[in-house]
Amino acid sequence: MIGIDIVDIKDYLLHPRSAEHLRFLKAKDDQYPENIDPILLYWIVWSAKEAVFKSKRQLKSFDPKLITIAFSHDLHFSSKQLSGTVEVKPNYVVATAAQQSIKLVHQIWMNHQKTDSQKAVRERIITYFKPLNITFAKDENQLPVLFVNEQKKIPISLTHHGNYMAFCIEKHKVLRY
Q1: Which of 33, 48, 51, 168 lies 20 to 30 A from 145 at CA?
Q2: Strands in 63-143 per DSSP E
Q3: pTM to 2 decimals?
Q4: What does each C-alpha distance from 76 to 20, 72, 84 come to in angstroms?
C-alpha cells in the first residue's frame, strides 16, 4: 500500500483556491497543520489525501471528505494504518503515503515534453532503474505494477501534474534500494 501525489502549484491552469475551499476536503476528524497560508494548505491537504487514496489501490472515485488525516507539526501525517509526509517546494507540493512499516523510494522529475505524461513518467522510471529490465503491467484493478527482470512484480504509484512527474515504490533489494 503506497501512494504519491504531486501538485504543480505554479500551473496557470490550476483553479484558484482560498481558505473557504478547505470545506470541500475536510473530513470530520481531520487535523491540519497551523500557521500555513490557506491556499498552500489546501494543496497540502489535497496531495496528502490523494496519496492515501492511491495507496489503497481500489477502483473508487476520489472523495477527500471520506479520508481522515491528522498532521503533526512537521507535515507528517497519519490516516488509519497509513503514514505519510508532504514536501513543500517553491513550485510544487508532493505527498507520499504507505503503511508505517514500508520504506519508500520516490523520485520527481520535470516534464519537459509537454506531451503524454503517462508515457514520459514510465520512460523515466525505466531509465532510472537501468540496468534492470523494467516493464509495466497492470494488476487486477488495472493499476500499475513493475515487473523487474521479468519475474518480480512490485506495486508502484505514479503521478503527474503540470511541469512535474513522479513515482514512489517500496524499497526492495531487487531494485538495489
Answers
A1: 48
A2: 70-71, 76-79, 82-88, 92-99, 104-110, 134-138
A3: 0.91
A4: 23, 6, 6
What are the chain's domains? 2-99 (3.90.470.20), 104-175 (no CATH)
Which cell numbers in the block locate residue 154? Answer: 512490485
Return phi, psi of residue 143, to 5°.
-105, 155
pLDDT digits (tens, 9 = 90+) for 62-117: 899 999 999 987 899 999 989 999 999 999 999 999 998 888 888 999 886 666 77
C-alpha cell at 116: 503524454
CB 91 within 8 A of CB 10: yes
Q: H or E element: which one contains 38?
A: helix 38-55
Let me know: does 93 contact 87? Beta carbons within 8 Å.
yes
Contacts of 117 (CB under 8 A, 6+ apart): 111, 160, 165
Integer-rounded Cα Rg, in Å, for the chain is: 16
Q: Which three cell numbers stand for residue 24?
A: 470541500
- Unique residue bearing C-alpha cell 523494467: 134
